[in-house]
Amino acid sequence: MRPRLLRLLQRGLLAAACVLTAASAGAATGSLGTERIRDLASVAGVRMNQLIGYGVVVGLDGSGDATNQVQFTGQSVQSLLSQFGVTLPPGTNPQMRNVAAVMVTAALPAFAQPGQPIDVTVSSLGNARSLRGGTLLLTPLRGADGQIYAMAQGNLVIGGAGAQAGGSKVQINHLLAGRIPGGATVERSVPSDAMAAETLQLELHASDFGTARRVAETINQRLGVGLAEPLDARVVRVRMPSGGSRVAFIADIEALEVQVPPPQAKVIVNARSGSVVMNQSVRLGACAVAHGNLSVTVSTTPVVSQPAPLSAGQTVVAEKSDIRVQQDGGVLFNVPAGAELAEIVKALNALGATAQDLIGILQAMKAAGALRAELEII
């Protein structure tokens, strides 16, 4: 009986160990998020290219550039008219209120082919009041190398309206910049060697050694051992197959799902707007916070001084200023430790501070070591 009991006891202990191991593995896996490689990284060399050009918008309802102040608008129109055989007398400076000089920008997508339409953005360069209702004339768009990659032309779409008369002015949204959907046609493609190279480099959007290792491990497990190798915290090198479709191979890589670790604990503070954003990795230690308000009030009261009767004095109006400083008593709050984002938000809301005051409180918590996160001020 003893050997049998011993065997049963060993089996029970082994089963309990397996359950504990599975539970611990499940808890560890639960703390990881799942992301596609497409959302984590991009293929090196597959990128957009910025284009820029100088053009002229016509057809404005008297809201264009004042050509007597913006000289280059008149020069542009004269140069444009000379291409159609129209020559103005020397020294002539035409006064045109329906024309505006603009800068045209666009983003050329990767693998864009000639004839493909792309969107363009048109922005006023002179002192025009509005580009609403205008038409962009044929404008070449150049890249950083000075070559022409697209030609833009079309009617502007302005998301605003405005009117002025008799010194009064009403305006909704911005009137000096607009877009032309599909307003440019690609004339030249940008060559890319990403598809012809022997290796493919995946560049992570955020540098992280753990993510780079997990991306390489996932590719090797799903597509073949030894295909991927992490070079550093940002780049994973993948060996391209000798046969088969490379497009299908890259598509299979981008569709793979990777278990990524939680992001770095970070609190983003926008000092201009007073916005405070924190991610789920932020932890808060127990601390005590005293918060008080200081207000300064300046009030001005007019005082009239009358001269004596039958005197040659004049009535004088003076101002009396009253400055008052008031400081509310600070209350010491006990902020408990929090490991969950909901607990941290609840503890910070208990302080009753405004967004601007919360910025100073978070900075003080970080200095005291109670805020376990990176504090970034933008």
TrEMBL record:
UniProt KW Signal keyword: yes
Q: Where is the signal peptide?
A: 1-27
Q: Where does the record say this protein resides?
A: Bacterial flagellum basal body
Q: Name one GO biological process term.
A: bacterial-type flagellum-dependent cell motility
Primary subcellular site in the record, as a coarse category: other
Q: Would I find Signal among this entry's keywords?
A: yes
Q: GO terms for molecular function, please?
A: structural molecule activity
Q: Which domain of life does this protein belong to?
A: Bacteria
**Any one cellular-component term (Gene Ontology):** outer membrane-bounded periplasmic space
**Keywords from the named record:** Bacterial flagellum, Cell projection, Cilium, Flagellum, Signal
**Which Pfam families does the entry link to?**
FlgI
Q: Which family does it belong to?
A: Belongs to the FlgI family.
Quote the subunit structure annotation.
Answer: The basal body constitutes a major portion of the flagellar organelle and consists of four rings (L,P,S, and M) mounted on a central rod.
This chain's function reads: Assembles around the rod to form the L-ring and probably protects the motor/basal body from shearing forces during rotation.
What is the protein name stated in its UniProt record?
Answer: Flagellar P-ring protein
Q: Which organism is it from?
A: Ramlibacter aurantiacus
